[in-house]
Amino acid sequence: MPNIPPQFGIFLFIVAAAVLPLVFASGYQTFQLTMVVIYALSVLGKNLVTGFGGQVSLGQGAFYAVGAYTAAVLMDQWDVPYWATLPIAAITSGLVGLMLGLPALRLGGLYLALVTFALAISVPQLLKYKAFEGWTGGVQGIVVSKPDAPFNLPISSDSWIYLFSLAVGVVFFLAITNLVNSRIGRALKAIRDQPLAAEAMGVELARYKTLTFGVGAMVTGIGGALSAIAVGFVSPDSFTIALSLTLFVGMVVGGASSISGAIYGALFIQFIPNIAEEISKAIPGVVYGVILIAVMFFAPGGLAGVIANQLRRLRAARVVGTGRAPS
After folding, report:
1. pTM, 2 dp
2. What is the pLDDT of residue 1?
3. How far from each other are the two terminal CA atoms of the chain, in whole angstroms?
4. What is the phi-psi region of residue 151: left when phi exceeds 0, alpha when psi lies from -120 to 50, beta otherwise?
5. Element spanning 240, H or E
6. What is the mean predicted confidence (pLDDT) over 103-131?
7. Are 46 and 221 in contact (CB under 8 A)?
8. Kindly report the CA angle at 136 between 134 and 137, in degrees rounded to 5?
9. Per-residue pLDDT reduced to its tens digit, 193-241
10. Rounded to an integer, what distance in angstroms lies between the CA atom of residue 303 and that of residue 127?
11. Helix 205-231 vs helix 183-193: angle between axes, to the nearest 10 degrees?
């Protein structure tokens, strides 16, 4: 059997992800898949900061909120097209991340986690603050209209938002993959593993730590902006500390330091709570906790590590079966 280039496999996956939901999924299922894409982007930003950068952050939900509110305010008050809100949301979230990256230069470990935890707690309160109600809508939040498919395409609004989100997700996943595999990515891994040795080798810790927070916040902010477009509503209570913890769970379950792990983590945080509720409506939280513990027990390195190991075994078995030396 000829070897299939990984690029071809990725292309087939993208085509299947774009076509199959439009054919077989209902409107609600399409919305769920849109949220998977959004969560995958948000977990990817979290993974860049913690998994690759080695900086413990519990404030990713704050960047998600900044991106969501930026898109909602622009659409609601200035009639900015939904697609034009994404770069503005990315810039706004990235700037907030850069500002948070400044204390990250002096703090680390649990201290940095505490600072980002405080950010995640304070942002929803700021969104409710009376001085900002004219912008944020206060406790009531902001309602925005979902965009229709352009060019009179014969698909629903939910299907179009899914395709739009998928296209944005593919672009950012490819961009972050190239970033991680570049000189910058190698510097981030060196700082994560041995910061003193990295600094001795000439790696600028201050520059790369700040850059990591900025780019990670930007990617998560894009996810937040897409969520405002997909849901059509934002409110402060949607961005509590529980969101930051959920993104943290997605990163760990999917696999830290893994690009594909962001997708597995997004699938987990989107569908496992629903499965837990179907198993037991009385104690869904307990069922969810048991499932989470089981996943961590059987896949301590994340689901991405388990899948990668299985693929390596399949390749090794195929090589042994053909009698060829492994390449």
Report:
1. 0.93
2. 43
3. 15
4. left
5. none
6. 85
7. no
8. 70
9. 888 888 888 888 878 888 889 999 999 999 999 999 999 999 999 999 9
10. 35
11. 110
